[in-house]
Specification:
The complex is a heterodimer of chains A (about 170) and B (about 475). In chain A, helix 1 runs antiparallel to helix 2 and helix 2 packs antiparallel against helix 3. Chain A is an all-alpha fold. Chain A has six helices and no strands. Chain A folds into two domains: about 120 residues, NADH-ubiquinone/plastoquinone oxidoreductase chain 6, subunit NuoJ (Four Helix Bundle (Hemerythrin (Met), subunit A)), CATH 1.20.120; about 45 residues. Helix content of chain A is about 75%, strand content about 0%. The model of chain A has no long low-confidence stretch (mean pLDDT about 85). Chain A starts with a helix and ends in a 5-residue tail after the last helix. Chain B is built from 19 helices and no strands. In chain B, about 55% of the residues are buried. The mean pLDDT of chain B is about 90. Chain B has about 475 residues and is mostly helical. The longest helix of chain B is centred in the middle third of the chain and has 32 residues. In chain B, about 75% of the residues lie in helices and about 0% in strands. In chain B, helix 6 runs antiparallel to helix 8. Chain B starts with a helix and ends with a helix. The chains are: A mainly alpha (about 170), B mainly alpha (about 475). At the A-B interface, helix 4 and helix 6 of A face helix 1, helix 4, helix 5 and helix 8 of B.
Chain lengths: ~170, ~475
């Protein structure tokens, strides 16, 4: 059951991901990205990681992507013109991706620990408080540095996006 | 003193300056820069106080050893130099951004590097993948903004976009690599990585190598080693010159510190160490060859310095590949200090020449000795040092690295490096030739320098020559 769901959602995810890259209208790209995020959330649910799944839907698919769509509509972006992709570039890209996939599958096959069945996670009712404890207690220093990162990013957005600086 | 107070002071300094900039927008921006430099200098002095160990919560992430302290000072000095350079760059910034009045949006150009400095200081202390990732991202965000700062200039925007996309891609590789290593070893600690690997069965080695490879991709992007150097020339050319200097010195040094911390652990595992060091040796060879050969054909000064920066990555990678030698870490430290002095000197001269003659091609340097003897002398010293000729810091930098490579028996690498040095002498002295032996193409106007710039240039020349005669203090502080 779990495996079937995994295959369904992950293949959907890849299909939508391809849509993001190949479609030309910005709105369809953004919608594909939302759908891809939702499929990822579904995969998290099949892995019993409910909190991450909900955060994925709320933050990534909800907040961030709605913002994306707003920007696209506010800027009134038109569909991109079709570009001709050179054959050499396409072949080169295909070789890189294929060799990476081969490497990945070899790595997965090389080690028996990846085909081992893991027991399901128990006691996941404490999910949120456990993540909170880990984040604010054990990972306090990196967490505070993220604060500095956000501050810098905010300043940068204002600097780069205002029409005229005051 | 708790070492975390160092970074805290730098962050607070940055926030205070942002506040001042927000509430007193009419304030002279130069004052902001001087307060920033003063504050950073104060923190630099603080690093010589005796340090206590960090609290138990922070200890898994943060270490304060000799290497960390040395590179914290290195990062602070680099940031101060960047701010000093930016003072001369104010007219270009004012032209490059759309402001309501003169001076709008200039203040942040001085404040953002301070935040980058804080994140670099965290970065060189990082002994956990989590802290590494977070502080690396923090630094990169500052760089995204600073590179595309001159947004009226399409080149600056192009450089910013290129850096954003490629850097985000390599961040993906970094995170993927970290998750593989976490998946295999169950730890995100770099300091205890070797201890966890020893306990693993032999079948875990392939996934571990896979993760290592992915992390190496990301770090090689930061230091601009050969197959991951494509972004460098364009970004160098488009970015504001002080930021180019910062990118080329601080970001590279940070990449090498991380590489050292990570590879030191892998070196403790013989089977893994051998493979990883074969890769580093190969990277060093191709980077040396590519950087030097491509630099020979350049006619633009910024691009020449970009390819020379790739070549220098190659030399430092030689020492990384010889990490088993006792002197490897001091050799890298010394090389980076020499690189700091000579590269910033070259960029300062380049910035002034670009502003006064309207271009950064090598022919703009023609007849520079008639326009400003000090600038020509400074550029000559910088080029001699970059080429690695005796009595300059660059000579000892290369000497120590060749020494450790010889001790570890990397004879093939040494042969390639010797060829690279010869190629280097050719293209660095091309600039010297243009300055002294060629007639200026346009009417030559003398360049007047501000007092501060004169002092800065003379000080850098002195540092390069002194380190070229007496390199011991730098080596001692890393042993």
């Amino acid at each position: 059951m779990q495996l079937t769901l995994f295959w369904i959602f992950s293949s959907l995810m890849i299909a939508f991901g391809l849509g993001v890259v190949t479609l030309r209208s910005p709105i369809s790209c953004a919608m594909c990205l939302v759908s891809s995020f939702i499929c990822l959330a579904a995969v998290f649910i099949t892995l019993d990681a409910f909190f991450i799944a909900i955060v994925q839907v709320l933050v990534a698919a909800g907040a961030v992507m709605v913002l994306f769509l707003f920007i696209i509509m506010l800027l009134n972006l038109q569909a991109e013109e079709c570009r001709r992709v050179k054959l050499g570039v396409m072949l080169g890209g295909a070789v890189v991706v294929l060799s990476f996939m081969v490497l990945l599958s070899e790595t997965l096959e090389s080690s028996p620990q990846f085909s081992k069945m893991m027991p399901p996670i128990t006691a996941s009712s404490q999910d949120v408080s456990m993540i909170g404890m880990t984040l604010f207690h054990s990972f306090n220093l990196p967490f505070q540095i993220v604060g500095v990162l956000l501050l810098v990013a905010t300043v940068g957005v204002v600097l780069l996006s205002r029409r005229t600086l005051r | 003193m708790n070492p975390l107070f160092l970074e805290l002071t730098v962050v607070l300094l940055g926030i205070a300056l942002l506040m001042v900039e927000a509430f007193f927008p009419k304030l002279c921006k130069k004052r902001l820069a001087f307060v920033g430099m003063g504050g950073l200098f104060f923190v630099l002095l603080l690093t010589w106080l005796p340090m206590s160990s960090v609290s138990i919560e922070s200890a898994p992430f943060y270490t304060i050893d000799n290497v960390a302290l040395f590179f914290k000072r290195f990062m602070i000095v680099t940031t101060i130099l960047t701010l000093l350079m930016s003072l001369d760059y104010i007219p270009v910034i004012e032209r490059g951004i759309p402001g309501e009045r003169l001076g709008a949006g200039v203040g942040e150009f001085f404040i953002l590097p301070i935040f980058a400095c804080a994140s670099l200081m965290w970065l060189v202390s990082a002994v956990s993948f989590i802290l590494l990732f977070v502080s690396l991202e923090c630094m990169t965000v500052v760089l995204y903004i600073s590179i595309s700062y001159l947004r009226k200039d399409p080149k600056s925007l192009e450089a910013g976009t290129k850096y954003l996309i490629l850097s985000a891609l390599t961040t993906g590789f970094l995170i993927y690599g970290i998750s593989w290593i976490f998946g295999v070893t169950g730890t995100t600690s770099i300091a205890h990585l070797a201890e966890s690997i020893v306990l693993l069965p032999a079948s875990s080695m392939t996934p571990l190598l896979f993760g290592t490879g992915l992390i190496l991709v990301a770090l090689c992007f930061k230091i601009a080693a050969f197959p991951f150097q494509f972004w460098l020339p364009d970004v160098y050319q488009g970015a504001p010159t002080p930021i180019t200097a910062f990118l080329s010195i601080a970001s590279k040094a940070a990449g090498f510190v991380l590489l050292l911390r990570f590879l030191e652990q892998l070196y403790l595992i013989p089977t893994l160490g051998k493979k990883v060091f074969a890769i580093t040796t190969l990277l060093a060879i191709v980077t040396l060859l590519f950087g030097n050969l491509a630099a020979m054909a350049q006619t633009n000064m910024k691009r020449l310095l970009a390819y020379s920066s790739i070549a220098h990555t190659g030399y430092i990678l030689m020492a990384v590949a010889s990490i088993g030698a006792a002197l490897a870490v001091p050799a890298i430290g010394f090389y980076l200090v020499a690189y700091l002095a000579m590269t910033s000197l070259a960029f300062i001269v380049l910035m002034i020449v670009t502003e006064t003659s309207g271009g950064d091609e090598i022919y703009c340097f023609q007849g520079l000795h008639e326009r400003s003897p000090l600038l020509a002398a400074a550029m000559t010293v910088a080029m001699i040092s970059l080429a690695g000729l005796p009595f300059s810091a660059g000579f000892f930098g290369k000497f120590f690295i060749f020494q450790v490579a010889f001790q570890q028996g990397h004879y093939g690498l040494l042969a390639v490096a010797t060829l690279s040095v010869v190629a280097g002498i050719y293209y660095y002295l091309k600039v010297v030739k243009a300055m002294y032996w060629k007639q200026p193409s346009e009417t030559c106007t003398p360049i007047t320098l501000s007092k501060l710039t004169t002092v800065l240039i003379s000080a850098l020349i002195a540092v390069i020559i002194i380190l070229g005669i007496y390199p011991t203090p730098i080596l001692m502080s890393l042993q």
